[in-house]
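fyi for ur records
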Amino acid sequence: MRQRQVVTDRRRAREFEAFVAGAAGRLLHAAALLTGEPADATPRAQRLLTDALARTYADWDRLRGEDPYDRTRQELALRFARGAWHRRGRRAGGVLAGLGPQERLVLVLRLYEGVAEEQTAALIGLPVERVRAICARAVTMMRESPAGRPVAGGTRADSGSSGAERPAHE
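which gave:
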């Protein structure tokens, strides 16, 4: 009986390691976009991803056909949203620097990850129309601002929750 558990644990660990090897790069990039950290220094993004992956691993045997990438991305978005709304004074950098946390979350989910509006809205806990408006406003702000610079006098998104669908990942 004990040997069966050891075999099961090893199989689980190998499956999870294979998943992380294939998905961690893209997920870390999404986390870095959310936190606004530069690609070469991402301590907050790494911490966010590590926490999301730990939760996915804890639930690994209960996924029952659910895509682990979707689950991890959802956990990543939820953890970002919970933390970001409480750190409103912290300024993000990078390409999405001119956007508030909610706008960054919607843009990363909708445009980088390819999550449908309905799924993003359900994950964040907002109406689909609100997600559509946030995304449109964020895209407009990105088009009007020089790359990587905050928008002067730009509107900030108001507080919300967090977001997730399936990306075209390898």
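The two ends are 37 Å apart (CA to CA). thats all i got for now
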